[in-house]
Fold Protein Skeletor.
Amino acid sequence: MANAIRKWRASVLVACLFLSYNGLAQEDDKEYKGKYLGRLNTYHHQVSGEVYAVNEYTLLFTSFTYDGNGADTFFWAGASNRPGPQGFIVPDEWGKTNVLDRYLNKDFTLTLPDNKKITEIKWFAVYDLASQNTFGDVNIPEEFDPPAPQRISQLSKRSHGVSSESIVILDSKTISIPQFTYDGTGDDTYFWVGLGPQPSSKGTKVPDQYGYMEPLRAYNKEDVIIQLPGEMTVFTVDWLSVFDVKTKSNYGSIIIPDGLNVPPSLVKVIKHVQSLPNCVQLHKRYQVSWEIFGPQITIQLAGQVAEDEYMAFGLSGSDTSSQMEGADATVAYMVDTRGYAADYNITAKAPCGKVLGQYKGVCKDELLGGQDSNQLYTAVRENGINIITYRRTLNSSDPGDKEYPTDRPVYVIWALGRLDENLEPSFHDFYPKSDLLLELNRQEPENSCMDFTENDEKSFEPWKKTEIFDRSIRTFRATIGPSGGRKGYQGISGQTSMGYAWYIEGQLIPELYLRRGLTYNFVVYGGNNPHSANLYHPLIITDEPHGGYDRLSDVAQSKVRVLAGVEFTRRGRPRPTAVGPLCLSKHDTRDRRVDDDFMSFKKFNRSLLFVCESGEGGVLEVTPNTTWPDVVYYNSFTHANMGWKIHVVDAYSRSEAILHNLSRTVIIVAIIFRLL
Ligand SMILES: *[C@@H]1O[C@H](CO)[C@@H](O)[C@H](O)[C@H]1NC(C)=O
Ligand SMILES: *[C@@H]1O[C@H](CO)[C@@H](O)[C@H](O)[C@H]1NC(C)=O
Ligand SMILES: *[C@@H]1O[C@H](CO)[C@@H](O)[C@H](O)[C@H]1NC(C)=O
Ligand SMILES: *[C@@H]1O[C@H](CO)[C@@H](O)[C@H](O)[C@H]1NC(C)=O
Ligand SMILES: *[C@@H]1O[C@H](CO)[C@@H](O)[C@H](O)[C@H]1NC(C)=O
């Protein structure tokens, strides 16, 4: 079933770009499925089902049945008065034009071929071409008006600079707000929807276009698309407002008209019932619920995450804001069916690594000599949601842990991101920018969580990878910059990121081509302050893609072949050789959570601020020789996953390579001759 739905989704996806797809998995008759066309007339072979128009080009069939016994039977449509040989094949739900097989109560969509519109046909049939026999059909009425996105009014301009162009209802859950503007200075302002004649504080927060539940930032003529949460649709709300919940003021709003003829949202709602009384939605994809009982707190983290992603939640490192440094956090994840809720100590905004021999960064308590104070209760993954429940004492016996206060609210932190190859959290993809204060010990429990909706996020097309393939370049300038979200380092290399990456000659992790026998220099500007937990990056070259040599165990180190950048002290300790001042491209004041919005690295790079410390770069001189494998990697000595590939070639051009091969062969032949 899930598979069928996925495929069905793919077909809708091809059909209509706006629709945010799929899943009428639960057969609820009240559910909006588009404009009803009718029930298929049954003539032969048990053809039956209901037909809806989803948009101008696409028909939705529900409970479609056909016994599959026709010899030469197709989905068939035409503009003549009745089904007959004048018509065309409508490809099946997989886009194929094969003879139809059997269907039993199937739900799927069909898109008319060649951009034909539903209004251009008079009937749709299950038709046998050989016998010219109609097995079932439905008529398209004259003047049929298929669902389409509907343009309504603009946001009223009331205050805080709120404005937009005409809002478009893309489908029953999706609202496009073109050229949205808001000065960002409200106290506690959100996209807010509700019932009644005008906006009021009795409403529901709508996640922003990135799924965040945080107060809205400033917007300057940005095209914003939001999705109504849980089961809400445009038919169940009367207005949309930019609303300040604290001051109860409406900064700008629209009334959503009744009876809109819009495409159905095919986003599937995923029910998740919290078992603990308090619940807060941290992000569209993430909620935390909890209960305090006696000296203990039970916490449940539920997140719509990939199998290799973690959910983090904990107490802030500061008493006055939400802050990662100093935080006491839990990192929860699943490996197959096994769940983990590990207790972490965050001493720096960096993956756990050694700083002058001491572990620093996001490290397990146990690694720092503390203890894991979490007791895992249950862990399941269902419908793409990880649900992990753990318990701990409010005041743990580990003096390094923070105490969960019951007499006052407390600042918390959270994040979602990927686990690296060692099951350690890498740089987070989702995390809050604003402070989040939670009252844990509430007089009355409060649950403000909503249902999850199927993830309709488009997959990310990574930025174009770059190569430096130029025989004249013998010197590479290596600097540091942000890894560029899921389109950047993660997308290009397929590896997780620690947040920063190498920029070689101003390019994000280009693939380099070095020729055996030639000498190259890397001029390294990776930072030379060994006290820095995240910006001390000597360059190394190894035969494996991760690097981060310094943080590896002795056993792991022994498996790595270091080709350049590390020397060993007399006591056998590794020491980096290519260290230089820091040249860093950085986000100025821009929110790095929107890095995925940049279409190319070039545009992204232009949004960064480039700062360089004074001083000469460290030099790493390398001369690849025949013992070097064909692919090696440049990386950081201190942290994993910052660099990428070096192709080691025998020649820069193909003809040169053939010559080289030839000469090798000649030598071998010569040797053989001599032996003879
Ligand atoms: C928490 O425990 C420590 C010792 O384990 C104790 O000194 C402290 O008073 C306790 N705090 C509360 C609020 O009970
Ligand atoms: C976390 O690290 C800080 C700084 O090193 C230390 O003071 C604290 O005790 C640590 N906590 C735990 C649980 O190890
Ligand atoms: C990125 O920006 C830096 C600094 O402004 C510049 O030197 C570099 O050439 C840029 N890279 C690309 C690919 O545009
Ligand atoms: C080949 O390169 C490796 C790594 O740089 C080096 O250790 C080795 O001495 C070189 N071998 C020769 C024959 O130059
Ligand atoms: C050179 O020979 C190697 C095997 O010895 C082969 O893999 C490679 O493709 C050859 N290169 C060319 C350009 O023919």
